[in-house]
């Protein structure tokens, strides 16, 4: 459900809050930053958003931070089409596969604490209840999961798994269900021999983190959300953690007709059940605060950041994936980040070093597969990036 988008960018305990952290069920009206109303590209970016939403996409949201001008954020369209509820900067957005950035950071934090070795076999850390289903697990290292060179197959490409999800869209699935979807299958290639993006890698990292910490979601909350002062970020390790949060409704152009339908319960179920490869929801600003905190050395040590940005290459020799980080070539400008797509949402989070600029954009339309409306979301993305690079 969290396939890497087929575009250049979208290419691929609990959450009880205390102090400054938002409680579930209450919409935060504090972004944690001060927006700059005089942001020089505001009018251009706003015009792009309003051209696409709600006329084409239900809603779109964006946040930008530049070292020169500070913060700007905006939204257009409807968080709830039927009720005509406008999307705003305080709505939480589904990060989908951008969650992998957080999962990779959690594993690297454990490395820094001496709890895990990146070059050790996953057999050392993954409980037997899971590793028994993975062929040649002893040859696969933690590093290979992080940079998608393990050879492990994609759990959500299993026909039986997908069939059950579509026929019973509100029935929760478990991590064990996902692992069993690849049970005893031959690896796609020899571990470490090539790159192939697979959600299963990050599911296994979450299970390893659970084994080492007792609850990887609480570990992420304490060591990432709270460490970076993220007021509006949520992730859970149990069903229903999204209940009561200020999320928009989710839509899917199921028949590729240009008419999206509301599939919110299905979207929430897939996100709540996903571990490691999906699951974080946050405001557009919080998404940037996370990546900005990483790039500025507020979360990981320099040696860990070198690992994050050590990109493996594809079969054509192009930089592809570090540790939870995709390498993008924006008309010759390098950019680092991740994209995400699901049944009812899509997004992209990037840092463009040459411009000293961060951007996060999202829509409440499903973009996990190509189609008329997902293609339009891709066009909007390209216009946003072009405007920032001008």
CATH architecture: 3-Layer(aba) Sandwich
* Strand segment tally: 14
- Structural class assignment: alpha+beta
Any idea of the CATH topology?
A: Beta-lactamase
Please work out how many helical segments DSSP would assign: 12
Major sheet summary line? 7 strands, antiparallel
Q: How many angstroms separate the termini?
A: 35 Å
> What is the number of independent domains?
1
Major beta sheet, strand line-up: 3-2-1-14-13-12-11
Q: Low-confidence runs (pLDDT<50, min 5 residues)?
A: 1-25
- Rg, Å, rounded: 19 Å
- Output the CATH class name: Alpha Beta
| CATH evolutionary superfamily | DD-peptidase/beta-lactamase superfamily
The overall pLDDT, averaged over residues, is 92
Strand content: 15-25%
**Shape summary:** globular
- How would you spell out the order of helices and strands? HEEEEHHHHHHHEEEHEHHEEEEEEH
Helical amount among residues, as a percent range? 25-40%
């Amino acid at each position: 459900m969290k396939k890497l988008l087929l575009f250049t960018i979208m290419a691929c305990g609990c959450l009880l809050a205390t102090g400054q952290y938002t409680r579930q069920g209450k919409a935060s009206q504090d972004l944690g930053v001060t927006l700059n109303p005089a942001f020089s590209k505001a009018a251009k970016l706003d015009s792009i958003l309003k051209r696409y939403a709600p006329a084409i996409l239900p809603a779109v949201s964006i946040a930008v931070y530049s070292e020169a001008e500070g913060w700007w954020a905006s939204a257009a369209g409807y968080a709830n089409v039927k009720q005509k509820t406008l999307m705003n900067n305080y709505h939480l957005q589904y990060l989908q596969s951008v969650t992998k950035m957080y999962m990779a950071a959690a594993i690297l934090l454990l490395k820094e604490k001496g709890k895990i070795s990146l070059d050790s076999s996953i057999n050392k850390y993954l409980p037997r209840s899971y590793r028994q289903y993975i062929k040649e697990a002893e040859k696969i290292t933690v590093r290979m999961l992080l940079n998608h060179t393990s050879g492990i197959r994609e759990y959500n490409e299993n026909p039986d798994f997908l069939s059950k999800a579509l026929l019973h869209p509100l029935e929760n699935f478990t991590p064990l269900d996902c692992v069993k979807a690849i049970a005893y299958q031959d690896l796609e290639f020899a571990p470490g021999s090539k790159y192939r993006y697979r959600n299963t890698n990050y599911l296994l990292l979450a299970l390893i983190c659970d084994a080492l910490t007792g609850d990887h979601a609480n570990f992420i909350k304490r060591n990432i959300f709270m460490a970076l002062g993220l007021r509006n970020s949520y992730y859970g390790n149990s069903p229903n953690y999204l209940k009561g949060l200020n999320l928009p409704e989710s839509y899917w152009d199921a028949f590729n007709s240009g008419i999206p339908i509301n599939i919110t319960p299905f979207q929430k179920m897939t996100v709540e059940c996903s571990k490691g490869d999906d699951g974080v929801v946050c405001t557009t600003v919080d998404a940037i605060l996370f990546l900005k905190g990483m790039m500025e050395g507020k979360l990981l040590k320099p040696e860990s950041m070198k690992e994050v940005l050590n990109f493996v290459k594809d079969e054509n020799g192009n930089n592809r994936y570090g540790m939870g980080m995709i390498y993008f070539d924006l008309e010759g400008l390098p950019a680092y980040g991740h994209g995400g797509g699901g049944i009812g949402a899509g997004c992209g989070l990037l840092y463009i070093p040459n411009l000293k600029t961060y951007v996060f954009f999202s829509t409440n339309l499903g973009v996990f597969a190509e189609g008329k409306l997902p293609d339009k979301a891709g066009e909007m993305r390209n216009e946003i990036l072009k405007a920032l690079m001008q």
